[in-house]
Amino acid sequence: MRITPETVRRERAWVRERAPVVVPILNETRERLGRLFETDVDSVAPETYRREVDAVFADGEVAVNVAACVALLRDLDVAGDYPGFVVDEVLGRELAATVAGGRPLSLLAQATFHLVDVRVSGDETADGAGAAGADDLDAALAAGFQTRLPGWDWREEASPFAVSPSDEDA
Description:
The protein has about 170 residues and is an all-alpha fold. About 65% of the residues lie in helices and about 0% in strands. The chain has nine helices and no strands. It has helices spanning about 5-15, 20-35, 45-60, 60-75, 85-100, 105-115, 135-150, 155, 165-170. The radius of gyration is 17 Å and the shape is globular. About 35% of the residues are buried.
């Protein structure tokens, strides 16, 4: 595999075009997590997803890593599927974490990936490619972007744990 700037542009376009598949999974995940944590979570519109895809790919160091994970998962297939279970899970977790951003969001995205992955099957993927990594790719994009995007109350409020420099002088 060779990743070039053109490869990154192609993968960005593919991820943007995935909105009809990823956004419903993302929103269903938010609804499910909201019920589990007894909170309301804002849904995400397809255009919001696409804008955030653009933001992820605007950072070249992140973009090349996201593009590589996407390309690998799109093409990953293992005879009999089960022997390849570990590699598609690892790639999916890392893609979700990379999309979400640094800690603690990356860890939340990895945990969310597993929640989403068990609910997404290869039959639900829009392109029907049949690759073992296809459902993991959709799950990873949904988990990463749902974690990254606003809509969670705890992310909208100032953290009670933040310590400003002026607090040290008190």
